[in-house]
Design goal:
It is built from four helices and no strands. By secondary structure, the protein is mainly alpha-helical.
Length: 179
């Protein structure tokens, strides 16, 4: 029974992934239509350009979303082995980015520490300027970078189906001191 639920869950995930892909494609298309409407309004008139884009958005786009969803679902379903290999290669590259990014964030954090120590030694108005520069310029970049890298790391764990943040239900062994 568990295999059936896993299979249904996989199919639902594939449909959702295909639908999101279709929506992204249609979002790009809608942006292109807005640009078309802007450009075409000067040559064929604003009313006619708006009429054409409205027709495309209301009458054609729902069928395009449905068609792209079906095609993407079929491709994901039948090209699953290729898809999984491609995802693994992407995840391996992202792991490298994650590793180097964490190393750079730690290094930059260490540099800010030494910047504050140098400001403490220098003192006076110059120390205030150094501390404000570090606080207003460098620390926000480090914080945003670190947050993005943490999210990237969680994404990589999720894609590799690693559950390091979830307790293991199967593991009921006692600690040596409890025996």
């Amino acid at each position: 029974m568990r295999k059936v639920f896993d299979f249904i869950g996989s199919l639902v995930g594939y449909v959702i992934a295909a639908f999101i892909f279709a929506c992204v494609v249609c979002g790009i298309t809608a942006g292109g239509l807005a640009i078309y409407e802007l450009i075409a309004s000067s040559s064929i008139g604003a009313e006619r350009a708006e009429e054409i884009t409205t027709h495309i958005k209301e009458d054609i786009m729902p069928f395009v979303i449905l068609a792209i969803t079906v095609v993407a679902f079929v491709l994901i379903l039948f090209a699953q082995k290729w898809f999984n290999k491609a995802v693994e290669r992407i995840i391996d590259k992202l792991k490298s980015v994650f590793g180097y990014g964490v190393a750079l964030s730690l290094f930059a954090g260490g540099l800010t520490f030494f910047g504050f120590v140098a400001a403490l030694i220098i003192g006076g108005e110059t120390a205030t300027e150094i501390c404000l520069f570090i606080k207003n310029t460098i620390l926000p970049v480090i914080i945003y970078t670190s947050t993005t890298l943490v999210l990237l790391g969680l994404f990589i764990m999720y894609m590799r189906k690693e559950h390091a943040l979830t307790p293991d239900k199967k593991k009921n062994s006692k600690h040596e001191g409890e025996m």
